[in-house]
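Board work, copied verbatim: N-acetylphosphatidylethanolamine-hydrolyzing phospholipase D
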Amino acid sequence: MDSTEEDLIRPIFKNGRYQNPFDTWEDTPGMGTFLKLMRSEDHSNIPSPRELDKTLPVETPDFQKLKNPPESDIQIMWIGHASVLVQMDGLTILADPIFSDRCSPVQFLGPKRYRPPPCKIKDLPHLDAIIISHNHYDHLDHGSVKSLNSKYDDKITWFVASGTKEWMINAGCKNVVELSWWEEAEFPGRPDFKFASVPCQHRCERTLWDSMKALWCSWIVKGPRHSFYFAGDTGYCSGFKQIGRKYGPIDFAAIPIGAYYPRWFMRPMHVDPEEAVKVYEDVKARHALGIHWGTFKMTREFYLEPPVKLGEELDKKKIDREKFFTLRHGQVHTIGQPIPS
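↓ predict structure ↓
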């Protein structure tokens, strides 16, 4: 049964700043806890590029497939981290694009890629829409936004959460739609396509002074035949069950599985693989891709642990591993088809 409008969880906005309404949320700890985090054991063990080419290969995308997507199926490509390209029902959608070497305010300091993007922005196919989950540097990258604007100009529509439109306009974006949780908008010229901002549990800031002044969200895209859910970046919360009740079943979901250790610090903001499977179940996804891993060193779990733990959790729940899967960087995949090993 669908949730009524009165039942739907809304963000809290007080004194110019947003707050999470979930009882699973905890505010980010202070400097003392951050220093404790820096002293915690690091299990990431990221090897040399030569070894990474064997264990975490980057695939050259099949550009012919991207230029000629199937008419009746969903086609996707994992670019890396949370960046995923989705083609369905005649629309091509890019989520949280980052092509820069570092997810940082500057390109000489901050988390650096240990796996390169599989292609350049100039190589991407025609794009219709770009969805942004929130304003953290690993999800909203200024260099990538500028390059996308240079290539596509006003041919794309950007969908962002409340509080981010002004930043997008200042970065040169022409068509920007800003939505709060549960608000919906039609895609321009395609009334059969609906974009909806929906809840997740996270936070926003790009400087020391703008903490929580913009909202974070996940996204539902509903076309005439298919639907897509993009979780973005999130801790586990009660919002996912509401998403499933209102919009499920969902044909394809992109759900984060990495950047979760140590749990005492990361739990409010990032799901681990066990919680990612809960999200998959809550939103009633038929198929899902594990994202937000294997690209930047953000946290301290072993770099290949997220897909391993995802598989173990799926086995525990007797869910087919082909239903919630991972891909190689650059791999182009049609939903529902076997995934090459």
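The mean pLDDT is 94.
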